[in-house]
Specification:
Number of domains of chain A: 1
Strand content of chain B: 15-25%
Structural class of chain A: alpha/beta
Strand content of chain A: 5-15%
Radius of gyration of chain A: 21 Å
CATH class of chain A: Alpha Beta
Shape of chain A: globular
Number of helices of chain A: 16
Helix content of chain B: 40-55%
Distance between the termini of chain B: 69 Å
Number of strands of chain B: 16
CATH superfamily of chain A: Amidase signature (AS) domain
Largest sheet of chain A: 11 strands, mixed
Helix content of chain A: 25-40%
Radius of gyration of chain B: 30 Å
Order of helices and strands of chain A: HHEHEHEHEHEEHHEHEHHHHEHHEEH
Number of strands of chain A: 11
CATH topology of chain A: Amidase signature (AS) enzymes
Number of domains of chain B: 3
Distance between the termini of chain A: 18 Å
Shape of chain B: elongated
Strand order of the largest sheet of chain A: 1-3-2-4-6-5-10-11-9-7-8
Number of helices of chain B: 15
Oligomer: heterodimer
Structural class of chain B: alpha+beta
Largest interface: A-B, 45 and 31 residues
CATH architecture of chain A: Alpha-Beta Complex
Chain lengths: ~500, ~475
């Protein structure tokens, strides 16, 4: 038995049953990370000391016969745009290179309360802006399936860490696909719940109306476990929903008869890699064999989703990132400027990478006087049309299934010179963010070159339970989720 | 003057809440710099705003008191500009759905009523404060964020004011309304009430407005009036010379008493407003609006009118009494308790109570003499006389004792026993032959001397009316 290859649920079971102690799990994991990390580079920061301390606490609780939390002893990685008290939170940006928050994000507080062991902070595209991880100011994380390839983005670090067994589960954030797309590229289960299901407090904002915390796990049960812990209302996030959280762990095994699966034609058209198309088609066959009805449908306005997204997301980002000015914290050059404007300019010119600058410029442009109506207002209207499309569709189906991304993981450097091409890799994940519905990516096959293929299941608002159940149904029938890259 | 002045005002009033608009930090004025701050009001990464319900309710109350149409669906917007005192480099404010639109303020200018239309009332967050070092060669400035995030109400008028007197009256009336409804302490010296003015000139009878100049940095009502006078003459000089008044924003320099160009229209800010995604839209139900209406007290202008019409108070006195809601409350309470004419109380309050408050640096609510106590004093005044009543009042103000207690303790009841007084009168006349002589020579102050002597002996208790008669009788019989 190799400890770090186990799922989070199984390692928890073994810790709770006192088959192994939490400290052993951490020791084993860090040994493996020391071996594997140099070729993957999933982490920006590792906290072995803190992890051991927490593991010891869990072990002590158990040996004293005390009660332990839902995530007792499970080593968890946290994307580096989620605030952790006393641990640097950089967003993979030079501008926050030395920023240590004095507070925990809501989700971090929750996993700590449930006795998770935080092992480190994972790499991402700077401020979660990117689809490949190449926009990190520090280094590029590699896809464990093929280290010449990107792991996806922006949460490539979290996805690569879980795939390479360097974390049992990870927290990510998903603004346009940053949990789901890397999960599909790395062969994980990545879930972005409904907007408002999980508090955003402490998640460094990229685009506030689209950002949502999500889970990256080895299988669906682990996703249910992690979401169980981090979901729920938070008085410190006005947009978090004041709704009860169902028992996901119980829910995933409940079987639903007469399952109706919607398949939108717009998600299978031009630009879709044929191997991915056939993998998802085969997956639908498996559902069919299990009694599901496949319903063809149309989401006519989804063709505008990427354009709409890049107006709304950049507008919000331009404002959210305005606070990084060097006045109160973060990167600050020498006090040599003649005036405050020069100071702002230099701090931001030095602190931000080119993709972030591109989006700030675009966002400021679409909000400018004279352009606001033509861009931001128009985009908001189109966003409503896309919402209506989904609402109509969900009148007839339980979920909507599509590929997660039109292509598998691509080569490092392949798309860096063409931002538009890069943006299109999120074409299937973006609609769920615009609409605010939950989506989960699960492994459903491999390309001929051995790269994972992900399938996305989207559900109605606050129906995480149902999409987890539908995902679990597929997982029970297949073994794609058990495949791991060869260990070198 | 050849031109008509057209003025509009923007008023910023800090709302008097315990905590800030979006976080739990305190709002006390004058605390050590940066001691009332937290990750939220410092704009640290990842934090989110949560609306202060009390502040929101206060803004609704103000909008209702200013007769606004309430936007039941109201939302907040981000107003973007870079300044070191603005932690997020955007201010969460309202632009597209203000809490209130199209209201008005009724006021009295030179005895006449005038209505000023309110364009909108909205709620926003306050910025911090820059602290510039005193040394002239210092190459830094400091920022105090204690104030950042304090709830701020902005009240924007239509360009309805046509004279500086109207502006003065508007500012005072608005301040009174805000104080009356209890949403702001309106302390100008602490910056909790600030004004920005826009002023333009046009030929009388013209239907179009002239080019408008906005003036910022007005920290007192006096400054507003001074800058408007300055601008009126500056702009009319320009127009007289056939020159154009530039559309611009100017800053008032209180030291040199001049306005200076801050920016022209070309470099005006583009605030890039868009809906604040971190707050959900607010729906104000009719019930809340109705409930708020019941909490609005009678406002100063109508109260002043009522004091004149129903309580026979002079307009001038009514103006003073209604300037402070609690002073007016005090007055009304006295009138309600006592059978004495209300004029008696308005005199006492305006002459004595206000002087005493001023000397003791107190607010009426903290004044030791309650309305009940004042009415008691007025009841017994006929038995002690006006001048002793004043002394008793002073004693009450310093000790908090009732008029009855003081009068008993000091045996201050007036002496109006004619035979007793007559004995004293005879004695004084005998002892002061020189004064008698003076009186005979027609020196009027001789009588005052006699009365003064008597008061000394009787400790001021002698009834002066009776005394006067007795001296006159006695002295005239002597001189004959």
């Amino acid at each position: 038995m190799i400890l770090h290859e186990l799922s989070a649920s199984s390692i928890r079971e073994k810790i709770i049953n006192r088959e192994i102690c939490a400290q052993e799990v951490v020791e084993d994991l860090f040994e493996w990370i020391a071996f594997k990390e140099p070729s993957v580079k999933a982490y920006l920061y590792l906290d072995k000391e803190g992890a051991l301390l927490k593991a010891k606490e869990v072990d002590q609780k158990l040996s004293n016969g005390g009660k332990v939390g839902l995530l007792a002893g499970i080593p968890v990685a946290v994307k580096d745009n989620i605030c952790t008290t006393g641990i640097k939170t950089t967003c993979a940006s030079k501008i926050l290179e030395n920023f240590t928050p004095p507070y925990d994000a809501f989700v971090v507080k929750r996993i700590k309360e449930e006795d998770a062991v935080i092992i480190g902070k994972t790499n991402l595209d700077e401020f979660a802006m990117g689809s490949s991880n190449e926009n990190s100011a520090f280094h590029v994380t590699r896809n464990p399936w093929n280290t010449d390839c990107i792991p996806g983005g922006s949460g490539g670090g979290s996805a690569a860490a879980v795939t390479a067994n360097m974390a049992f589960m990870a927290l990510g954030s998903d603004t346009g696909g940053s949990v789901r797309q890397p999960s599909s590229f790395c062969g994980n289960v990545g879930c972005k719940p409904t907007y408002g299901r999980i508090s955003r407090y402490g998640l460094v904002a990229f685009a506030s109306s689209l950002d949502q915390i999500g889970s990256v796990t080895k299988d669906v049960s682990d996703a249910a476990l992690l979401l169980q812990v981090v979901s729920g209302h938070d008085a410190y996030d006005s947009t978090s929903a004041n709704l009860g959280v169902p028992d996901y762990l119980a829910g995933i095994n409940s079987v639903k008869d007469n399952l109706k699966i919607g398949v939108p034609k717009e998600f299978f058209g031009e630009g879709l890699n044929p191997e991915i198309k056939s993998a998802v088609t085969n997956a639908l066959e498996i559902y069919k064999k299990n009694g599901a009805e496949i319903v063809g449908l149309s989401l006519p306005h989804c063709g505008y989703a990427v354009a709409t997204y890049y107006i709304i997301a950049t507008a919000e980002a331009s404002s959210n990132l305005a606070r990084y000015d060097g006045v109160r914290y973060g990167h600050r050059n020498q006090l040599s400027e003649d005036n405050i404007i020069d100071m702002y300019s230099r701090v931001r010119a030095e602190g931000f990478g080119s993709e972030v600058k591109r989006r700030i410029l675009l966002g400021n442009y679409v909000l400018s006087a004279g352009f606001y109506e033509a861009y931001y207002m128009k985009a908001s209207k189109v966003r409503n049309l896309i919402k209506n499309d989904f609402e109509d569709a969900f009148k007839n189906v339980d979920c909507i299934i599509s590929p997660t991304s039109p292509s598998p993981a691509f080569k490092i450097g392949e798309k860096v010179t063409d931002p538009l091409e890069m943006y299109l890799s999120d074409i299937y994940t973006i609609p769920a963010n615009l609409v605010g519905i939950p989506g989960i990516s699960i492994p459903c096959g491999f390309t001929s070159t051995g790269l994972p293929i992900g399938m996305q299941i989207m559900g109605k608002h606050f129906e995480e339970e149902k999409i987890l159940m539908i995902a679990k149904l597929f997982e029970n029938e297949t073994d794609f989720h058990l495949k791991k890259p060869e260990l070198k | 003057m050849k031109y008509e002045v057209v003025i509009g005002l923007e008023t910023h009033a800090e709302l008097d809440t315990e905590s800030k608009l979006f976080c739990g930090c305190g709002t006390k004025f004058g605390s050590e710099p940066n001691t009332q701050t937290c990750p939220v009001c410092l704009g640290l990464p990842g934090v989110l705003p949560v609306m202060n319900k009390k502040a929101f309710g206060f803004s609704l109350k103000a909008a209702v008191a200013l007769h606004c149409e309430i936007n039941q669906f109201t939302n907040f917007d981000r107003k973007s500009y870079y300044y070191p005192d603005l932690p997020k480099n955007y201010q969460t404010s309202q632009n597209y759905f203000n809490i209130g639109n199209n209201g008005y303020v009724d006021m009295i200018v030179a005895g006449k009523e005038k209505r000023i239309d309110i364009h909108n009332v909205h709620l926003e967050e306050e910025a911090g404060k820059l602290v510039h070092p005193e040394a002239s060669d210092a190459n830094y400035s400091l920022v105090d964020f204690n104030r950042a995030g304090v709830p701020l109400l902005e009240i924007v008028t239509q360009p309805d004011m046509r004279s500086i007197e109207e502006v003065e009256s508007y500012m005072q009336t608005l301040r009174n309304i805000l104080l009356y409804i209890g949403v702001s302490d309106c302390k100008m010296q602490e910056g909790s009430l600030r004004f920005e003015a826009s002023i333009s000139l046009r030929e009388h009878g013209s239907a179009v407005f002239g080019n408008r100049v906005e003036i910022k940095n007005l920290n007192s009502m006096k400054a507003v009036l001074k800058v408007l006078a300055y601008e009126t003459s500056r702009q009319s000089d320009l127009l007289d010379d056939g020159k154009e008044v530039l559309l611009e924003t100017r800053l008032w320099d209180d030291v040199d008493a001049v306005s200076r160009r801050m920016r022209t229209k070309e470099d005006a800010h583009d605030y890039r407003y868009f809906p604040e995604p971190d707050l959900v839209p607010f729906w104000i139900n009719q019930e809340w609006i109705d409930e708020t209406k019941t909490t609005i007290p009678e406002l100063p202008v109508s109260r002043r009118r009522r004091f004149v019409d129903e309580l026979s108070v002079s307009d001038y006195d009514a103006g003073i009494l209604t300037e402070d809601k609690f002073l007016a409350d005090y007055f009304e309470e006295c009138v309600a308790i006592s059978q004495n004419p209300s004029k008696e109380f308005s005199n006492w309050i305006i002459n004595d109570v206000l002087r005493e408050l001023n000397e003791q640096k107190l607010k009426i609510r903290d004044f030791v003499i309650s309305p009940k106590m004042l009415t008691e004093l007025v009841e017994i005044k006929p038995t002690i006389g006006s001048s002793i009543a004043k002394e008793v009042f002073a004693e009450m103000a310093s000790t908090g004792k009732s008029a009855f207690v003081i009068v008993n303790e000091k045996d201050l009841t007036q002496m109006d026993d004619t035979s007793k007084l007559n004995e004293i009168v005879i004695k004084i006349i005998e002892e002061n032959p020189k004064a008698v002589e003076d009186y005979g020579l027609g020196k009027k102050n001789a009588l005052a001397f006699f009365i003064g002597q008597t008061m000394k002996i009787t400790k001021g208790k002698a009834n002066p009316k009776i005394l006067m008669e007795l001296f006159k009788q006695r002295l005239s019989s002597i001189s004959k």
